[in-house]
Each structure stands twice: as C-alpha cells, then as structure tokens.
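Bumping my old thread because nobody answered last time. Still need a sequence for this structure:
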C-alpha cells in the first residue's frame, strides 16, 4: 500500500494536543478530517545550504527589533522631556561618581 506521508507542524495541530481522550484511533481520526479538507499546514525540512542563511536572517531580525525598540524608547524620552534632539536630553545631566 503506497500512502503519501505528510509532515504536519505540531504547533498548528492543536486538535490532538487539547483532546481529552488520547488513543491512536481518536488521534488518527482528528488528524484525518483536517487533512482531508487541506487544513493542516505541511512542514518542510530545511536544506543544509539554507540553514546558515536562516540563522543569519534570524540574528539580523533580532538586531533590527532591538534597534527599533531602543529608538522608540529614545523618542518617548525626548517627548517626555520636550526635547528636539537626543543631545538635549543629556546636556543638563551631571553624573557624579
């Protein structure tokens, strides 16, 4: 018997995770219905060539998100103290050690 195999993303298949009755028969039925209607998103294994690219892009995304967060924080501080530029924020601050 030659049946196609689909690798489902577990994160999106919540019907099994939240089921109260956990048997193979019930789980297979709960998977078969959305699979029949094409509701289960397939997962694909990433190639080794794309692994480094994906990791680099994830790192770049984290850096970009931090940059945006810091920039937003600076603009909020400037608005709070009614400043036109970041240099005005720190002009009158004296640090004593």
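Sorry it took so long. Here it is:
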């Amino acid at each position: 018997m030659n049946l196609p195999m689909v690798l489902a993303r577990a994160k999106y298949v919540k019907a099994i995770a939240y089921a109260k009755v956990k048997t193979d028969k019930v789980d297979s039925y709960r998977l078969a219905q959305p699979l029949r209607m094409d509701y289960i998103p397939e997962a694909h294994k990433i190639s080794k060539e794309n692994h480094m690219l994906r990791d680099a892009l994830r790192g770049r995304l984290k850096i970009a998100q931090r940059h945006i967060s810091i920039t937003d924080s600076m603009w909020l501080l400037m608005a709070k103290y009614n400043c036109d530029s970041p240099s005005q924020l720190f002009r009158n601050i004296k640090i004593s050690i």
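The chain has a mean pLDDT of 82. Let me know if any region looks off to you.
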